[in-house]
Amino acid sequence: MAGEATLNGNNINGDHPAQVNGTAEHSKPKTGIKIVIVGAGFGGLCAAIECHRQGHNVELYESFKELKVLGDIISFGANAGRIFRRWFIPGTAERISDRLDPLCIKLQKYGFNIHKYDGELVMNQKSPPPDPEAPVFNGHRGELHKTVYNYVKDDLKIPIRLGCRITKYFETESDAGILLDTGEKVTADVVIGADGVRSKARELVLGYEDKPKSSGYAVFRAWFTNVDMIKDPETKRFCENGDTFNGWIGPDVHFLFSTIKNGSDCCWVLTHKDDADIEESWSFPGKLEDVYKVFEGWDPLCKRIVSKTPEDKLVDWKLVYRDPLPRWVSDGGRTCLLGDSAHPFLPTSAQGATQAMEDGVTIAICLREAGKDTVAAALRAFQEIRYDRVKDVQKTGESTRDMWHKADWDAVKKDPTSIQMPREDWIHGHDAEVHAEQVVGDAVKKFS
Ligand SMILES: Cc1cc2nc3c(=O)[nH]c(=O)nc-3n(C[C@H](O)[C@H](O)[C@H](O)COP(=O)(O)OP(=O)(O)OC[C@H]3O[C@@H](n4cnc5c(N)ncnc54)[C@H](O)[C@@H]3O)c2cc1C
Ligand SMILES: *[C@@H]1O[C@H](CO)[C@@H](O)[C@H](O)[C@H]1NC(C)=O
Fold first, then answer.
1. Which residue lies with its CA nearest to atom 5 of ligand 2?
2. How far is the centre of ligand 1, averaged over its atoms, from the C-alpha of 282 (Å)?
3. Domain FAD-binding: where (predicted)?
4. Residue 91 and residue 25: Cα distance in Å, rounded?
5. Average pLDDT of the residues in 249-258
């Protein structure tokens, strides 16, 4: 079985000498499978890298015309760190994780200070000891995205076509295909719709249009430089001695504030009740006045921190949600969803981007195992391997939010650890590549 050969051959170990000199990236035999990936977010980029590693031919199509450094804080758990660690710059011993690390928050010294909304410090949650095999990355989404995007384009030289909006997905017996807004048609053995929460690919896969629903919450969020923060003696301390991370938790609201890149950048998110609107956008302008209203009766430090935000950096993001989709793979078995198009996450899970990456690792391995003549079995095996895990991780977004928003403060006083940010081993200890290699043989057989 191919999976066993890889496990025993040690290729999955990032420290294998063949990978240190970068050659293992190209040592997998070519499969001849042509894959079109729609969307160059983290999901699409990771799928492209992993498909390239597994010997497939990949092309990416993306609607944005040029790369822009968009978004604010994004989290990658240890289960993403294991994946990033295996991505070498070809011909060198440099890993993509070496490039991501300087952009990310460092909390070994500081940990996470959790406060009750009135300001009382409830506990300091220590960061787990760093695991060099499974680093954690929390940083600016746009900066991290640019790093991975440039790796795909410049280092791996995977073709990316920008400014291509896909208007239609279709399938025949022998192909899957996309239609661009220019009228151009592109076909391949497999099409992966990594096209985000507003996925167009979902229509083909499900056979109907799936509407998002409101999660009942919205998030004010901002990222800005520390200029005004260090002018104020009360807020200066968050930017002086390296990075910091503080949270304030109240009924139906939580406020998280961190400083990043040695305290030079500041970022906060405020999750609060909001039923008003359903919009799947990242860039709604927000108003500081509206944020202050949420903070009535709260620790005055919260308002003080927020007041340093340039108003044009403030975003009001309505959090939409979707129930788990019945399936991620089309009837014909040549088109599938991946990442947010298949499974949007609430930010409180801190796993949305990481789960999109695990998808990419898994699908690339399934396609290699099944081969060009049985790609439908590969796609169905991919769904089979990923579905329940994704659903369980998705639920942690709700459970963490509810644990905070419905905190019983008398109970928390007796056991402050009950309010800790959960870091569950079944999520973070998972190695998507090792797991897929172990189960792929049986999974593909089941659908062949
Ligand atoms: C602009 C932006 C900002 C974000 N900011 C944050 C953030 O600050 N924090 C955070 O936690 N998460 C953020 N996210 C979401 C986060 O990136 C995803 O949840 C996660 O990384 C999973 O990624 P994905 O690749 O599945 O989806 P996405 O990152 O949404 O990527 C989907 C890609 O598909 C492209 N696309 C969509 N439709 C088409 C089409 N018809 N034709 C061609 N291309 C298409 C989109 O332009 C996009 O680049 C942001 C996403 C976007 C797009
Ligand atoms: C971090 O910032 C402090 C000032 O706040 C500075 O003294 C220190 O040298 C910086 N460290 C690094 C590694 O840049």
1. 240
2. 9
3. 182-393
4. 9
5. 96
